[in-house]
Amino acid sequence: MVLAAVLGVATAEVNAPRAQADESQYLEFYTPPDPLPTGQPGDLIRSEPSRLVLEPSGQLGSFVGTGTRIMYRSTDAQGKPVAVTGTYIEPDVPWPGSGPRPLLAYATAPYGMGEQCAPSRLFNQGIHASLQTGFDVMFNVEEGFIATLLARGFAIVVTDGVGSGVHGPQSPQFLNRMAGGHALIDAARAAMKLPGTSLDPHGPVAFWGWLAGGHAALSAAELTSSYGPELNVVGTYAAATPTDLAEVLPGIDGNFLAGATGFVLRGIMASYPETEQPIRDVLTPRGLEMLDNTGRQCLMQTGIDYMFRHLQFWFKGDVFEMAKNDPFKTILGAQRLGNEKPTGPVYFTHNRWDPFGPYQSALDTARDYCAKGADVTFWTNEQPPLFNKLDVNAMLPVFVDGERSMAWVADRFNGVPTASSCGEL
Description:
By secondary structure, the chain is of the alpha/beta class. Helices cover 36% and strands 17% of the residues.
C-alpha cells in the first residue's frame, strides 16, 4: 500500500500541468527592430496598452491608472543607440499638488537577468512563475510603492534598463553608470512624448530607485546636466544604493544573494564585450556554471540556487585581489557615484548595517556631493542587524521608511524648501 501511494503521488506529479508563464505573447513587442529607426535618445519606437495587475488574476486590488508598454531609443555603456523597454502609467486621479502633474522616472531593484524578469512584463503578471527550468518565480516586489504613488497623482514611467526585457542574446548592462543613467533619463523623455497623457512636456521630473535602481537614479541625476539638460529635474530618491561596486564584493560573499555575483559579471560583460573571455578564463567550472545559469534566471531562483556560497570557489584566483587590479579596478571605479554634481536635490535613505550596499560608501558619496555644492538629505535607518546574510537590512528599511520617502519626493514637486544634511555629514 505504501508503494502504491508513492507511485500514485509520482503519477499525479507527472500528469499535473506545469506552472508556466506564456512568454511568447511578448516576443513581437520586445524584439527590437533591426536596424533601429533613426531618431534621438528618448524617441518612441513603439507602444501598446499594458495590463496592470497586482497578482495574476487581477481580482485582488488594482492600480488606479492605465498602463502603456513602451520601447524607446536610448544609449548604452559604449555610447551606441539601443532599444529599451518600460511601462508608463497614467493616473486615473488628479494631481492634488501645485503645478502640472509630476513625472516619476522609476528604476526598480534587480528582478533577474532573464528577459522574463523585466519589470514591464511583471506588471502584466504580478507574480511570474515558470517551473519548467526550476523555481523560476518572481514577484513584482515594488508594486506597492508604485500603486501608492500612482494613487497620489504621480505619473510614473518604469524603465527595464538597457538589455533587460528585450528579446535577444544580450544581458542587462547591470549596475553600469552610463547605461543606467541614460535609460532612466530617456524613459522620462519617452513618457513626455507619449500622446494622450496629462503630462506637461516641460513639467517636473524626479528620479526614484532602490538598490541597483538607486544606482541608476543617482547616475541619471549626475548625467542630466550633460545628457538631458532640457529635463526639469526637481529631485532624486535613492534607497539602499551600492555607490561603490568595489566595496560590494565582501558583502556578497556568503550572502543569500551570492549569485548576484553573476549579475555583476554579466553586467560587466554586456557593457564591455571585450571582457567576456578574460572573465570566463578566471572562473572555475562551478563559476562558469553559475555565470551561465544566472544569465537566464529571475532573482528568486538565483537566491535559492546559490544562497550562502563563498565566492572563492567560483574563481581560480583571489577574487578580492582581482578587483584591486585592472581591468576590474578601472571598470568598477567607473561605476562609482559621487564624482559629478547631481542635478537637483538628492535624498539618500540607507540602513547603518546594510549588508549589500555598504553604509560608509553611500555616506562618502553624499559627502562628495555636498563638497560639490549639491543639496543632499541623508536619512540613516537605525534598524539593528537582523539575519543580515538574508539581506534583511537591505530589503526591509525601504518599506519602514516608505512614507517619509514619498513625502520628500512630494515636497520637491510642491516646491517645499529642503532641509539639507550637508552641514551634519
